[in-house]
Specification:
This protein has one domain: P-loop containing nucleotide triphosphate hydrolases (Rossmann fold, 3-Layer(aba) Sandwich), CATH 3.40.50. It contains seven helices and five strands; from the N terminus they run E-H-E-H-H-E-H-E-H-H-E-H. It has a five-stranded parallel beta sheet, sandwiched between helices. The longest helix has 20 residues. The mean pLDDT is 97. The chain binds adenosine-5'-triphosphate (ATP) and magnesium ion (MG). Adenosine-5'-triphosphate binds next to helix 1, helix 2 and helix 7.
């Protein structure tokens, strides 16, 4: 199975994915593909539309290869464009799209890495939520509202959904 976390920067994707991973480890083979880590490894700083498209197609393929071998793959990427998430869904069986939702104001307030500040100052261009669009998922398997739920509640919602879908015990 592939669990795909999408949402604005600072909405909580990495935090929740890590927590879900902790809860599954030991019982399942589980791997986390995270936006920051992957981009660091492959030294990819291209956040243009074309750049994001290419990057996410590559991630979708990695998820496919791993999940076909029985690994539970958790993917946490802003993945702001519908076409990229739809592509990931198309090539991955048992695809679970989790919309990690928080109002833009809350994300700006959190600004974990100081990126919103830079985007608002005009220091960086094409930042999702500021001067690049976030296209909300139309039919995600699950919506998580991190401004209203605790991390534990959000994590439990993901695990319950996976159980409900019959992917875990
Ligand atoms: N219910 C919640 N679930 C997840 N994170 C929460 C929740 N409530 C508050 N937070 C906080 O929100 C912040 C989310 O940061 P995180 O790095 O996980 O976001 P992200 O979506 O991965 O961002 P980016 O796209 O920049 O990688 C953390 O500081 C986390 O502690
Ligand atoms: Mg993250």
């Amino acid at each position: 199975m592939t669990v795909w976390f999408t949402g604005l920067p600072c909405s909580g994707k990495t935090t929740i994915a890590r927590e879900v991973m902790k809860r599954l480890e030991g019982k399942y083979d589980v791997e986390l593909l995270d936006g920051d880590t992957v981009r660091d490894y492959i030294r990819n700083k291209d956040f243009s539309r074309e750049g994001r498209n290419k990057h996410l197609r590559y991630i979708a393929l990695m998820a496919r290869l791993l999940s076909k071998r029985g690994v539970i793959v958790l993917c946490s990427f802003v993945s702001p464009y519908r076409e990229n998430r739809d592509f990931a869904r198309k090539i991955n069986d048992n695809f679970v799209e989790v919309y990690v939702k928080a109002p833009l104001e809350v994300c700006i307030e959190r600004d974990v890495k100081g990126m919103y500040k830079k985007a608002l100052n005009g220091e960086i261009k094409g930042f999702t939520g500021i001067d690049d669009p976030y296209e909300e998922p139309d039919n995600p398997e699950l919506v998580i509202e991190t401004d209203k739920e605790t991390l534990e509640e959000s994590t439990n919602k993901v695990l319950n959904k996976l159980r409900e879908l019959g992917y875990i015990d």
